[in-house]
TrEMBL record:
Matching PANTHER family: GENE 29133-RELATED (PTHR18849:SF4), LEUCINE RICH REPEAT PROTEIN (PTHR18849)
The organism's place on the tree of life at top rank: Eukaryota
SUPFAM superfamilies attached to this UniProt entry: L domain-like
Protein's name according to its UniProt entry: TILB protein
Keyword annotations: Leucine-rich repeat, Repeat
Amino acid sequence: FELPSDSFKYLRWCDIEDHDVRGNQLHCPRVREAGPSEEELFFRGEEHTLKKRKRVTDTEKWQKKLQENWENCAELNLSFQDLGDLYQVENFKRILRRLIRVEKLWLVDNSLTDLSAIRLPRCRELNVNKNHFTSFKQLPKIPQIQHLSLAENNIMTLSGISDLRHAPLESLVLKRNPCEFQERYRQLVFSSLPNLKVLDGIPKLPEDCSPPDIRFFFKMCTIL
């Protein structure tokens, strides 16, 4: 039998009427677009949820944009959003573009592949574990990043990691990426990122410092 909450189960928080909750007041909002198609709802016997779907006017769209208020979010968890279709991903990126003040952001397990067009100017902590990134070039622009976690992606090489060289990056997690098995992996990462203090949860060790280039000594002349 129908429960009182059934008519709301495919709605996002900002689609529910008569409340004044704004996006910057939520830490883990569900932002995925609406649920199954009308045909699928009919075959499920859930056509009663259709009465909540109506044409949205421009005024209502503007009111919803103000209610989302992503521009004032400082800490946000948008993990596990189940972005199964292209229009879901596009709406997700629309929200990311509005996060101009976010400082801590979690985007875990969203099947993300490329956020290079996104800029997060104030982000200090970013967690994009369990996505489908294959290169550092696919990360968003994060000039103020201090803590970055990229565990369980598919980053093959360390090419492009130097793009983070001028950021104040202190800790980086690359566990369970193919690049972790690259020869002299830790030395290469620390030499590329001079501000880095911790890699994969382990502080920088003396052996992580690259030895002097031996070719330099062959060019020297020793006078006895």
